[in-house]
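USER: Please consider what follows.
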Amino acid sequence: MKQVKNVVLVGSGKGGVGKSLVASGLAIELSSMGLATALLDIDVHGASLPFYVGAGAPVRSGRDGLEPKLAGKLKTMSVGFFTGRNPAPLKGGEKQTLITQLMALTNWGDLDFLVVDLPPGTGDELLAAFRLFSSNCRLLLVTTPSKLATEIVSRLEKLAKQEGVPVLGVVLNMSYVAVGKRRVYPLGKAVPGLLEKELQCSVLAEIPFVPKMNEKNLHATLESERALAQAFRKLAKKVAR
């Protein structure tokens, strides 16, 4: 941990809101800014980082530990590199140990930013991450415009406060669909001011919904989807500041 200047935990408290997408997009853009960046996926049961960054097994080991997979200049490590498409039926204590070992045994080198894709929920894995990275981490919340999603994310914000983890801000994912120069809001239009009041933090970015997102990895999608790339670039600049 002494080699890592800043840790950004990306979480939502629930699944299906795109926190892995946000974590991957943020890490890619921080890396493209010339910052030494790594992305760690600790979603034991539903790791999606391998798809987003276009990386996978095998993981090699060297003198200084497991070597992270490179996606451009971005260093990545995921539970999914080891489990593939197989389930990981682990219990609470086993999951906490796995998360700690994955962080400790990886040869990260010196990092400006470590972006951590948290698992959904507010259980053992999440608390393990809060306590493992407590020395220099901040939490980035991810939600959709859905009222239900926002209510669940607000629980994570409260838990973070109880654990002494500062909240960096909130990202509104799947906020709109760009149709030409017009924006359509399929999940309803969120009012940033009301959202900030409810979650007691700033809205840092609104990420558009891209219908063809799952057809190719995120690097390729960012190259072809200008609005998506601009949204993540804006988010990365704010986080870097």
Remarks:
- The chain has one domain: 4-240.
